[in-house]
Amino acid sequence: MLQRLSIKQTLFLSHLLLVLILILGMSYSRYQTEWTTRVNFAAGTAEGALVPMLHDISLAVAGRSYSKLLMPQKKAQFHNIEKLLYLDIQGTSDYSNKDYGLRYHRSLNKVWRSNVTLQEIDAAKAKTQELEHARNHPSNQQKTRMQKLEFLINKSTRDINILQDSVHLEESAFIPWQFPAIPPGKDYVLSYSEHVFYFKLPLLNRNGGHVLAIFDASHLFSLKKQIYDALIAEAFVSLIISIILVYWVSHTLVEPLRHLARQMGKDVEAMDMSQLEELKRNDEIGVLARGINTLTLQTQSQMKLLRHESATDALTGLPGRNSYAQQAERFFNQTRAENQLLGIIVCDIDNFKLYNDTFGHGRGDDVIKSIADAMHDAMRSDDLCFRIGGEEFVALLPLSDAKFLNIIAERIRSSVEKLSIPHITENGIVTLSVGALLVTPSAKKWTYSNAFDEADALLYKAKDKGRNRIAIGTLTPHKPCSTTKEENRSSETT
C-alpha cells in the first residue's frame, strides 16, 4: 500500500508527524526559558549584594585609602556576601593619580593589597625608624608628644606588617580563575565549565576603575541537571517517533531515490538499471526511474558512437590521433616489458601539398584514402597503423625478427608506388617516404617520445635523399638519449 502512495501524499504524512514532534519539542523552550530566568535572578541577586558597597569602595579608591577596606569589619562584610568567592578592586586615585589595588579571597578569608612595591615598604620602614629615633632621642618639644609618637610608631608598624603580608599573599595565593572578556552592555558572564559568575562593575570615583567579582553558581547547575533530565525524557519519546517516521519515509521515498542515485553515481557505460524494482512503481519515482533508464540507454548508445568516431579517422577508417595518443606509448612499454623487438614506421606522402594545389583537396582526400587502404593491406593483422596528421601515418610493429621491419617498410612503400596515382613530380606518380626505426629490448633508456623523434628524423633523411625511399635505424643501449639522430641511424636502403 505504501508504494502506491504518491510523493505528495508521502510528504504530507511525514510533515504531519514532524508537527507532532515539534509540539513535543516545545517543552525544551519551556525549560530553556526557566533556565534563563533562574540565571538572571541569581545574577541580579549577586549584583544587588555588591552595588551597595560600590560607594564606599569608590571613596576609598578616590582617596587611595586602604585602612577602611582592610578592617576586619569590612572583611566580614565581604565574607557575609553569599556565594562571593573572589573580589578584585582596581582603580586610580582622584587626588594622587596613583594606582589602587585590593583583593579578597573567600577560601583564604583574607583581604590584601595587590599593588604593593618594595619602595613603598622601604619608605614605611624608614618612616618607622624615624619615629623610633624621635622616641629614643626626644627633644624638649617631643617629650610632651611621646604618647602620640608611640601611637604613630604602632600604626606604622601595623602598616609595614600589612604591606609585607600583602606582598606574601600576592605571591603565594592561588587564584584558579581567569576573567573572560565580558560582552559590551553586560555586567557578567556565566562560565559553564567552572560553574561561576564573572562580574565587572564600574566604580563611581572621577578617575574610574572597576570591581571584578566571582560568585559561585554551582547551585544553578543542579537545576540545569533537572532541566536536562526532563529534556532527555522528552527527547526519548521524540526519538521513538522519529525512528518510526524515518523508517517509513526511507521505505517509501528515500531508499528508492538512493538506488537511483547509486546508479547515477556510476560511469554511464557501467549503469544497468534494467533490474531496479523502481522501474515497476506506478508513482512519480517509477516515472523518474523509467525516464533515467531511457536517457541512460540513449547516452550509452551515443557514447559508443562518439568513441568510435573519436578513435577512428573519418576519411581513412584507420585509428586517428586520439587512438594513437592512447595506444602508442602503452604498446611501446608492453613490448619492452615482454623483451620483444619493436618497429616504428613513420610515413609521409611526398609533395602532397603540391598535389592538393594542382588537383584540389577533393582529389587529395581520395589519395589519402587510397594510400591508407594500401598501407592497411601491406601490414600484418597484429600491426597497428594510425593516421596522425594530414598526410602522415605511423605504424607500430611487434617483431620476432629484425628483418621483418625492412620487409614491411618496403611493402608499404612499394604498395603506394604500385597505385600509380598521377602526379606532376619527377616520378610522375604519388610516392611515399618512410622512416623505420628498430627498437631493441635492451634500449632501456629510451622513451617512446625519444624513439618517435628518431623515426621521424629517419623520415626526413629519406626525403632529403630524394623521396620514395626508406631510411632505417636502430636504437641500442650503447647510444644515450642525448646523441644526435645521425649517430642513431644504423642503415639506409631504397
Order of strands side by side in the largest beta sheet? 3-2-1-6-5-4
Counted beta strands: 12
What is the end-to-end distance? 83 Å
* Cα shape: elongated
Describe the protein's architecture and organization.
The structure is a single chain. The protein has 494 residues and is α+β, with helices and mostly antiparallel strands. The protein folds into 3 domains: 35-222, no CATH class; 266-309, no CATH class; 321-493, Reverse transcriptase/Diguanylate cyclase domain (Alpha-Beta Plaits), CATH 3.30.70.270. The chain is built from 14 helices and 12 strands. The chain has helices spanning 7-50, 54-62, 67-70, 72-80, 118-136, 140-143, 146-172, 218-264, 284-311, 321-337, 352-359, 361-378, 403-417, 448-464, and strands at 84-92, 99-105, 110-113, 188-191, 196-202, 209-216, 341-349, 384-387, 392-399, 432-439, 470-475, 491-493. Strands 3-2-1-6-5-4 form a 6-stranded antiparallel beta sheet. Strands 8-9-7-10-11-12 form a 6-stranded mixed beta sheet, with helices on both faces. α1 runs antiparallel to α8 (218-264) and α12 (361-378) runs antiparallel to α13 (403-417).
